[in-house]
Fold:
Amino acid sequence: MTGSLFVVATPIGNLEDISERALRVLREADIILCEDTRKTMKLLSRYAITSSLLSYHQHSSQEKMERVLSLLLEGKTVALVTDSGTPGISDPGNELLTFLLEKDSTLNIIPVPGACALATIVSVAGFPMNAFLFLGFPPQKNKRKKFFAEAATSSVPIVLYESPHRIEKTLVDLREAMGDPEVVVGRELTKVFETIYRGKVSEVLPSLMKKGEFVIVVKPQKV
Structure:
């Protein structure tokens, strides 16, 4: 009998933000796939979970994906987690799922929902968010200018992820492409030093602390 792959959302910062169902699945899993075993161990140690870990990240080879497929075909229960939040959203987990489903479209893949940086920032944005455009991480180099030019044409809010190393550059690029739009910038969401900045890009930039992980909501120029 084929096993099951559970796609499990984990906390984006505060370790209390995990469901009882997610904890049960992680306890019962034969293998937990994770980006960084050290980060995942912090969560598992908090809840005394001793399931075996197997690394899976953006640099993992096809051989690793074949191994996951073999585990499922052997009837194993596998849980997929990311370093934080919901796997598959700007995350290498989506490549694994694509591979697995191309190999066998009947595989049992089960979502276990929970924390997500995207949903977290959208819930407190304060803009009309009945529709929005999620663009993930902006390109680091190639096609970056085109990326922001196309984002500027959106008639709904756009949501971006960004790292501390590029947050300032991304805000500057947004200002150049969109003419100093209003933004909501979430830094270190749910963590001890969570900060939410609001205002025009020119107002946010001077006070921005460039440490931690960021999520940006940009108010559209066309409403």
